[in-house]
Amino acid sequence: MYMLFQQSWFQPIPDDVTEPQIVSWENLVLFTVSCYQYIILASVYSKGMPYRERLRTNYLFVLSAVSLTVFVTWLLIYPCKKMAELMELIATTPDEEEKFMFRVHMLIFPTLHLLIAVSIEAFISDQQWLKRCIQCLKRKSKPKNKYKRLLQQRNTFPWLNTIST
To answer: Does the keyword Disulfide bond apply (predicted)?
Structure first.
């Protein structure tokens, strides 16, 4: 949104408008960026059993993710007038160069999001060193289970052994 507000051609929706104005640049930016986020998060975090298969084995998921990415990119860059009306988006033509270049520059955000999400998944989420660090920081002083605490007390107080046997 910040990038949109910095554009010289951008006119925000006036505050005194009482009826909802759906077709706006704000909605275009929010819609397309959130679509990319959903696709990226579903693709990056789609591994594991039983239902989340790896991408190379889940052809239908890859097909749907690629087709959705192509469709959203088409909606962002250069939608036809009929599709823009149906999706309630702003249609621009390539002769409006500033607005067209803004749409092209909007592809930077999903690209960065994809790189960051893949990096986090590869270098942080799947690593054992992170789990060990968290376990080291969260050292339990005493067990949460009541029976384990009783067993621990039994070992520290030998006279409890004589009562229980």
So the answer is: no
